[in-house]
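FAQ

Q: What does a record look like?
A: Structure on top, sequence underneath. For example:
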């Protein structure tokens, strides 16, 4: 089996950069570069969201007849099924592409098989080029497919003594300006923001993704509010800045099932301690991101409610995967620390 050339590996790195431009959607982030025989770039493409052209089709559309005889360098195995768009494997064959180099095999059982189709049509196919980089880019999407439910990232801000709000209920601002800006960066990588009705009633958040100037970004995640409690129609979450859905349940697994049916794949859980505890007890947290402020309150609302743990031996011990110090972004503020963790998944219900 042939291997990728240095030029193709460089093109794959460019394809990964292109893939990262795409918004998170029910589909993976994918980039494609078409190379001529002399190694020059003929066209580039990337997927821009559900219902739009896939990366290969985007590049082929730009190349037109110049695509004939090229090498397609793609971050994910070309799909082999018809959904909102046709199969990319057929598009590549029909365009006269002679060689395909891809990174990650498609984990979606509905879409896999593109490599076999391409080889069956006589194209040269090379796989596994920068595969780990591609898997990392689409780690949430791939894991969601494996789980059959949205990947859940639980984010919360806390003081040194584990408080998310003071005794009088005030919580603005536990985290620093830099931490809040970083939160918006992470929100933009998800397709759903999830809170409980209590958070809406008490804090009245917008639940939108905003830039440093406070302006909403063009791409906005779905806002999901979970719980049976009725809410005022004037609540900020019901404005026109983004779409909002009500999940009329207290069951985390049922809520995720509803979101999965809406083709949501990455939930950013920003609810209060009660909602967080419900998801933890159900074993439905896949990633934890916490911002720790150098602040002591001594009393107030805990970051998470009672988990039924009465002894140190039974403590949940998530694994730390990253620690980052966020330097102050506003005068008079102290650095905050962002800690990213992967929970122990043994608690997930079967």
């Amino acid at each position: 089996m042939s291997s990728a050339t240095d030029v193709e590996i460089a093109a794959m790195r460019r394809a990964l950069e292109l893939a990262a431009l795409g918004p998170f959607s029910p589909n993976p982030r994918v980039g494609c570069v078409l190379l001529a025989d002399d190694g020059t770039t003929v066209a580039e493409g990337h997927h821009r969201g559900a219902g739009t052209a896939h990366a290969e089709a985007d590049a082929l559309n730009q190349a037109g007849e110049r695509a004939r005889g090229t090498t397609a360098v793609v971050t994910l195995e070309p799909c082999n099924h018809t959904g909102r768009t046709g199969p990319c494997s057929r598009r590549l064959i029909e365009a006269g592409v002679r060689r395909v180099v891809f990174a990650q095999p498609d984990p979606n059982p509905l879409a896999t098989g593109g490599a076999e189709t391409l080889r069956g049509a006589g194209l040269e196919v090379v796989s596994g080029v920068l595969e780990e980089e591609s898997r990392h880019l689409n780690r949430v999407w791939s894991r969601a497919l494996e789980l059959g439910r949205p990947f859940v990232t639980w984010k919360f801000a806390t003081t040194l003594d584990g408080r998310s709000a003071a005794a009088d209920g005030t919580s603005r601002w536990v985290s620093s300006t830099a931490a809040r800006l970083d939160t918006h960066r992470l929100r933009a990588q998800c397709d759903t923001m999830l809170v409980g009705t209590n958070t809406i009633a008490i804090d009245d958040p917008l639940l939108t993704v905003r830039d440093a100037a406070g302006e909403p970004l063009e791409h906005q995640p779905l806002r999901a509010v979970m719980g049976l409690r009725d809410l005022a129609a004037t609540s900020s979450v019901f404005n026109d800045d983004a779409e909002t859905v009500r999940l009329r349940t207290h069951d985390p697994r049922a809520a995720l099932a509803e979101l999965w049916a809406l083709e949501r794949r990455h939930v950013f859980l920003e609810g209060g301690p009660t909602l967080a505890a419900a998801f933890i007890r159900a074993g439905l947290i896949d990633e934890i991101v916490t911002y720790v402020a150098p602040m002591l309150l001594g009393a107030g609302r805990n970051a998470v409610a009672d988990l039924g743990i009465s002894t140190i031996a039974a403590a949940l011990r998530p694994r730390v995967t990253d620690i980052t110090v966020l330097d102050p972004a506003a005068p008079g503020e102290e650095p905050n620390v962002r800690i990213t963790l992967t929970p122990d998944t043994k608690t997930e219900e079967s």
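Q: Is there anything notable about this one?
A: DSSP finds ten helices and 15 strands in the chain.
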